[in-house]
């Protein structure tokens, strides 16, 4: 059985760039639990609580039920469900999963493959992260599901092609230079010697969702604003003004200066007539990543 291929092709409910990370998050959660207690099954009620948190923190802005992946992942052959009445999932309804005492677990063949191949867990983890999330979120997600990313990083060196790594380095050079080595949101332009520091190329439409490696889909952002942009705290409106989520909180002066006061400010454009971010990429980010509503610009009161 090629488990890597099976996990790569988990059946999704939606296409066209719509994020549906429910099954991948359940898989990552199950791998994390497997790493801690390989033979222990997971009660639906417990999974429901934890997966709800994961979907809220790392899923798309719309809400959805953890019962769907719990039931539907079984048809991908990587997960099995049992109830008090025997094998097989009783359905995707929350009530019936709770009342039947449903429990889930990685499929037995997958568990034995993980036990025999010490590299497999890292490969599957990295694959799930690469296929569904941008790199800036990988450490946070791994920590949330209690997976050790070191194994995954090792696997990544084996699976990410030299060509992809070169292309990522090229894009970074191209984007940083187009934006004159300044964050497009705050103007941060740190360097040590002649080398920029704390500046990154941020995809607007994620690479994992067929986002292009080009200027019309990438911004030069400082590390803080890159992270907040990928978590949906920051976004752009069609006129490329910065949006700040009304869900974001931060009481101190730094949160005010570095985040809240960006609301409504125009993002920097690339210099020398470089191609600015395309509207369709902004629209994807607004629908799939940005959380809640945009705050209105204006004076921000803090303690
Ligand atoms: Zn910045």
TrEMBL record:
Pfam families: DNA-SBD_ScoMcrA, HNH_2. Residues 183-236 form the HNH nuclease domain. The keyword Nucleotide-binding does not apply. It comes from the Bacteria. InterPro entries: DNA-SBD_ScoMcrA, HNH_nuc, PT_DNA_restrict. The keyword Hydrolase applies. Keywords: Endonuclease, Hydrolase, Nuclease. Residues 3-148 form the ScoMcrA-like DNA sulfur-binding domain. GO terms for molecular function: endonuclease activity. This is HNH endonuclease.
């Amino acid at each position: 059985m090629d488990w890597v291929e099976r996990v790569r092709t988990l059946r999704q409910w939606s296409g066209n760039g719509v994020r549906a990370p429910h099954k991948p998050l359940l898989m990552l959660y199950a791998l994390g639990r497997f790493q801690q207690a390989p033979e222990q099954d997971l009660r639906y009620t417990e999974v429901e609580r934890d997966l709800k948190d994961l979907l809220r923190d790392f899923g798309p802005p719309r809400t959805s039920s953890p019962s769907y992946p719990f039931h539907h992942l079984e048809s991908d052959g990587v997960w099995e469900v049992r109830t008090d009445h025997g094998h097989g999932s009783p359905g995707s309804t929350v009530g019936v999963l709770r009342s039947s005492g449903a429990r889930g677990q990685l499929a037995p063949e997958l568990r034995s493959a993980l036990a025999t191949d010490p590299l497999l867990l890292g490969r599957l983890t990295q694959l799930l992260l690469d296929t569904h999330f941008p790199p800036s979120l990988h450490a946070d997600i791994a920590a949330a599901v209690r997976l050790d990313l070191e194994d995954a990083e090792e696997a990544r060196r084996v699976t990410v092609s030299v060509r992809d790594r070169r292309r990522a380095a090229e894009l970074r050079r191209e984007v940083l230079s187009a934006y004159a080595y300044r964050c497009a949101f705050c103007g941060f332009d740190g360097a040590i010697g002649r080398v920029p520091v704390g500046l990154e190329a941020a995809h607007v439409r994620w690479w994992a969702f067929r986002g292009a490696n080009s200027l019309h889909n990438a911004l030069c952002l400082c590390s803080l604003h890159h992270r907040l942009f990928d978590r949906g705290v920051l976004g752009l409106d069609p006129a490329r003004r910065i949006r700040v989520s009304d869900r974001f909180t931060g009481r101190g002066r730094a949160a005010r200066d570095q985040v809240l006061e960006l609301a409504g400010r125009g993002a920097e454009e690339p210099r020398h007539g470089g191609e600015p971010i395309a509207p369709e990429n902004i629209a994807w980010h607004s629908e799939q990543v940005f959380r809640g509503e945009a705050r209105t610009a204006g004076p921000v009161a803090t303690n």
